[in-house]
Amino acid sequence: MLALGHAVGRVLKRDTARPTVLIGKDTRISGYMLESSLEAGFASAGVDVLLSGPLPTPGVAYLVKALRLDLGVVISASHNPFADNGVKFFSAQGEKLPDAWELEVEAALERPPQWVDSATLGKARRLEDARGRYIEFCKSTVPHSLSLKGMKLVIDAAHGAAYHVAPDVFHELGASVVTIGCSPDGLNINDSVGATAPQALVRAVAEHRADYGVALDGDADRLQLVDAAGRLFNGDELLYVMAMDRKTRREHVPGVVGTLMTNMAVEQALAAQQVSLVRAKVGDRYVLEELSSRGWQLGGESSGHLLALDRHTTGDGIVSALQILQAIKRQGRTLSNLLEGVTLFPQTMINVRLQEGADWAKAPAMLQARAAVEQELGQGGRILIRASGTEPVLRVMVEARDAAQGRACAERLAAVAAAIE
After folding, report:
1. pTM of the complete model
2. Stretch 223-245: mean pLDDT
3. Could you identify which of 29, 97, 317, 401 might form a hypothetical disulfide with 216, taking C-beta atoms 3.0 to 4.6 angstroms apart as the criterion?
């Protein structure tokens, strides 16, 4: 990690004589060690460092832009278990960095280090008000007229980076807040709580008779919502609500960007409202690239990673939740009411282990089977077949209005795939 910090510092110094970077992290116990190593690596290259301590990934993206810094670094493995960890980087504009930049860093890692002399070592200091600055930013993404008074919310921060941020945001906007997943110990991040384990939120909403529950993941860039009836709303549904709320305010919404996994029912519901859906590859980075190329504002994934580019440069679970709650309050309707008529198509996913050397994409049997299933489904479903990027597995997904039909079609396609030599 020291070598990585040094290499990134050298790349930054090609354009700036004395760069400053911000390092944030989630609550994993390994974050302390990795933070120190990165800090030393940057200092050894003559780069100054600001340390925010635990802070959501979108908080770092905001602050690096607001403070006119040169780079944002987040030490986090997002929704993964506590033993995992990773590093994310954000540009001076608070955006994910391109492949070309990553290649430059990889090249710098291959070269011998160039330690600066003692007089030009980088300095480090703690950014004491990082949490408060980010809380105020989150609140600024909704109008001053918005009040959550009279609304009771359960906030689940997954024992992650938003544990000391998210409850205050919603409380300061007037909500009565109950918290779960807000007591990190370095080992419990995402452990049976948070966006990847929403049943804890479902139970807490029922227990406390709350109106809604908001679950974030470990670094708070994605969310899941639960209503008082225990209904769980995923990212596709929330993206639809965000788009339709803007339409009711007579804002221009030419289209939204989803992914290959975005539910077909949402695509059809958007089309009925004259809003196009464009599908990007799975991954928030690809959604962002598609939005930027089209000049659109709204996009997201089924997982709850949502983007509103006129509010933030990256996905932000807290900001996205505020957009949904704003729609509920402004229209005086429940979230279920706002999704009336939108019923997600059931999805059947089957993983098929391929035989070595099998070329499934060009196999005549697969082409014929796929054409037959597409004809059978018509406008009532769709097929997604893609190879895993990490193992010899083909992922066969069939989405259909009729669950039994979709399951049968997926099983037929999987059987054909398994027989390909």
Report:
1. 0.92
2. 97
3. 317
